[in-house]
């Protein structure tokens, strides 16, 4: 069962060959046995999972089953889950049990899905390697048998590793600068970051509010479509969520790609990309040509400014969002504070890890009086130019294709002492968040036995087209079915 996709499991459940309770038990047994190798989960919520599985069987018996009823899956530990600890990978929230569900959590519950637990992540989603988690690093299932362990990417590295290792068929992720796509690429799975505003952020712990977006991490594009069917939609509890009809994303998966216009941004095939990676990405694009697509070079002249703009905007927003963790209402509080100021300073000094502190310091500096215009305002202007580049490109082509990351999964410890080299991991993903457009990562080959992702970028609300393009590619390739040893 563990090798089956969500769509396949759904058919097994529907046929009555297996019950939701049996399926949940099988997955939980395997998860408990295997995850010691990867540390992809922070919390396994066995008791709640079995309650949900029983409810799923009842739902089916009552004739109310959806495609998700009884499907085991996991949430990134950034989505609030009522009654189940939600840590965001931080000591600050080590013992935080939310009294409410995120909208995304709620939607999966209504569909009858069975949440097995909460997956590991970089602390507060700040990182590209899942090494900054207070609960220890996650190991990539690819290359795990060799002498060195590799990172699964981040920040949604727990979800990516769990899906790649067949511990769950699907998991949620969030993407502020690449955190769904880069770990999906490094673990050889399929990842979808929707248009900003397509999926509610209510109850998703905020990092950088103008960039954060929840999305899907699965093995197949078809399953990503099934996930987005559940996740997408207007939510009055999130003021940036957009009120716009949600199509059935599975309905257009089989449209032919003949005539699809693909643009290759020349700035994304630069010296930052290793030749072996470039070869894989270009041969994936050739598959699309065989399917009837046409390819031309396009330019995103401001793309090179994306990392600099992001590392002002994201920390600025983070410094504001994270001010709520002060020891007063919830989360960690230091022992025996002398006075209020002592409580604030020691709580935050002890509760946050180094990368989070670095972001808060940078962000507070960028927003401070006298520097606001020079940094934050300037970065926002650059952001607009980057957005304009994409708008111009989509006048000529339907989708853009590029690499996801400059290299395959790197060795644990290789980059985590050098923030700038870590930040450069997102050189091909960050501009997409600044523009707010959707993008996917699709398995597209291997370099040195490690997975390589193809990034497919679309115009606003073109998720159906991206999923269609990814699904058609997966009908003629089998990269997404390869299983780590
Ligand atoms: N790696 C980027 C960062 O550290 C993006 C993280 C994310 O998308 N959550 O900010």
TrEMBL record:
Q: Where is the active site?
A: 76, 155, 179
Q: What gene, per UniProt, encodes this protein?
A: gatA
Recorded source organism is: Marinobacter halophilus
Instruction: Report whether ATP-binding shows up as a keyword of the record.
Output: yes
EC number(s) of the enzyme? 6.3.5.7
Q: Which family does it belong to?
A: Belongs to the amidase family. GatA subfamily.
What does the annotation say about its assembly with partners? Answer: Heterotrimer of A, B and C subunits.
Q: Which GO terms describe its cellular component?
A: glutamyl-tRNA(Gln) amidotransferase complex
* Segments crossing the lipid bilayer: none
In this chain the Amidase domain maps to: 22-467
What protein name is recorded for this chain? Glutamyl-tRNA(Gln) amidotransferase subunit A
Judging by the UniProt lineage, the source's domain of life is Bacteria
Query: Keyword Ubl conjugation, does the record have it?
Result: no
């Amino acid at each position: 069962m563990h090798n089956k996709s969500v769509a396949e499991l759904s058919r097994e459940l529907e046929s009555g060959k297996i019950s939701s309770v049996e399926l949940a038990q099988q997955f939980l047994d395997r998860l408990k046995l295997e995850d010691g190798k990867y540390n992809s989960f922070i919390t396994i919520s066995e008791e709640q999972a079995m309650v949900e599985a029983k409810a799923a069987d009842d739902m089916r018996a009552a004739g109310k089953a959806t495609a998700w009823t009884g499907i085991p899956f996991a949430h990134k530990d950034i989505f609030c889950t009522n009654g189940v600890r939600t840590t965001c990978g931080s000591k600050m929230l080590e013992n935080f049990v939310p009294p409410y569900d995120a909208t995304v959590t709620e939607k999966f519950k209504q569909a009858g899905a069975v949440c097995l637990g909460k997956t590991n992540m970089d602390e507060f989603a700040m990182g590209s390697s899942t090494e900054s988690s207070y609960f220890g690093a996650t190991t990539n299932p690819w290359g795990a048998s060799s002498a060195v362990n590799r990172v699964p990417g981040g920040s949604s590295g727990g979800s990516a590793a769990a899906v790649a290792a067949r511990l769950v068929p699907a998991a949620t992720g969030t993407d502020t600068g690449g955190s769904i796509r880069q770990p999906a690429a490094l673990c050889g799975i399929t990842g979808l970051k929707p248009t900003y505003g397509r999926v509610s952020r209510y109850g998703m712990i905020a990092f950088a509010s103008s960039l954060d977006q929840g999305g899907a991490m699965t093995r197949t594009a078809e399953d990503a479509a099934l996930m987005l069917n559940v996740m997408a939609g207007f939510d009055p509890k999130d003021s940036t969520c957009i009120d716009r009809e949600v199509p059935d994303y599975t309905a257009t998966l089989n449209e032919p790609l003949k005539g699809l216009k693909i643009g290759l941004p020349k700035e994304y095939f630069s010296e930052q990309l290793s030749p072996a990676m470039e070869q894989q990405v270009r041969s994936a694009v050739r598959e699309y040509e065989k399917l009837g697509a046409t390819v031309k070079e396009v330019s995103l002249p401001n793309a090179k400014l994306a990392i600099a703009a992001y590392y002002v905007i994201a920390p600025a927003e983070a410094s504001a969002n994270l001010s709520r963790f002060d020891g007063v209402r919830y989360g960690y509080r230091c022992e025996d504070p002398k006075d209020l100021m002592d409580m604030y300073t020691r709580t935050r000094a002890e509760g946050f890890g180094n990368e989070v502190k670095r972001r808060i310091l940078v962000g507070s500096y960028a927003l401070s009086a006298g520097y606001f215009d020079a940094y934050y305002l300037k970065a926002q202007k650059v952001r607009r130019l980057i957005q304009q580049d994409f708008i111009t490109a989509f006048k000529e082509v339907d989708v853009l294709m590029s690499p996801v990351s400059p290299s395959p999964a790197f060795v644990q410890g290789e980059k985590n002492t050098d923030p700038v080299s870590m930040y450069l991991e997102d050189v091909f993903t960050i501009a997409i968040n600044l523009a707010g457009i959707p993008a996917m990562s699709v398995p597209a080959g291997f370099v040195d036995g490690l997975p390589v992702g193809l990034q497919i970028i679309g115009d606003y609300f073109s998720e159906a087209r991206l999923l269609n393009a990814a699904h058609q590619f997966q009908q003629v390739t089998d990269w997404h079915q390869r299983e780590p040893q």
